[in-house]
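Task: complex structure prediction.
Instruction: return structure tokens for all chains below.
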Amino acid sequence: MERFKFKKASFVSALLVTVAVVLLQFLFFFFFLELPISQFSSMLFMEFIVLLILAYILLSYSFERFLITRVRELYKSLIPTTSYTPSVGQSEDIDLLTTSLKKLNSDQNLEIELLKKEQSYRREFIGNLAHELKTPLFTVQGYVLTLVDGIEDKKIVKKYLKQTSKGVDRLIYIIKDLDLITKFESGMATLDQKPFDIIAAIENVFELLEMQASENKSVLKFDREYPEPLMVYADEERIQQVLTNLIVNSLKYGVERGVTEVSLEVLKEDKILIRIADNGEGIDEEHLHRLFERFYRVDKTRNRNQGGSGLGLAIVKHIIEAHGEKIFVESEAKVGSEFSFSLTLDRN
Ligand code: ADP
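Output:
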């Protein structure tokens, strides 16, 4: 049952109308027909009461109907897709509409906040990208302009051409990494998953990075011997890339005569955890949660000179997550870092 609500505006309007009608009748009976008041006063009084009640019911119904129709129009123009159609005449509709509009308002505020965040993220990304491309581009431009001016010495010409080529290589390297990330983010990157031996894959990466490791007399090793192959089910090429990026970082941010140690731990439910630990410069805790973001760097000036694109860890995370696996990082400044990720064992 609908609860009775006294509507003041309707009552005042009904009262005014009733008073006007009764007054007109009074004037008509008294002045025009010249009847004595006692003859029509009780009739007018009764009429006043009945008219007041009828006018009140009629006006409050029309007011409500008018209001709800207007509010509904407003509601629909705000949320055109709404399936909600209030039935005219129910006063709860106004409360319902108010609640819905309040919710809509808070939803929109949330959406605006999200858009603002996205906008600032995009701005930061474009700024970082421009910064990243600027250095090699200016290097290339500098050498090319000098060469255009003309240099006699053939040795210097060759040296400058080599530097130009390095700059171009670096540009290509950044663009390729970006392209790969975009493919992962848009879901266009595919995985070619097959069983392969993860021990052999790690040994392969060790071999490829041997030269780089020997440059600062660092050692790449397993924590113990792994005499048996350990078969995992994943995209071998992509996992080699993950291993390469993580081991290269352990060298880049390692100390002289540092040690990079890889260990494997078989977990339950057919999972394996691969750990890459170093005793390098480490990372302060405040940076850890942003480490896998594109272009995020702990030391903005130093690391760029070491040749990375700032996308290495972002790529690693995308590859691991595309496999449905997880990546973790633990680190302590001046002590070292440990990156670990899970893979699924091939039990066939
Ligand atoms: P890049 O190495 O090109 O700067 P990455 O995405 O590979 O980009 O790494 C992001 C940042 O994480 C690096 O700039 C570095 O500050 C930090 N980092 C990554 N790996 C290590 C590590 N093993 N030890 C210390 N810092 C690391």
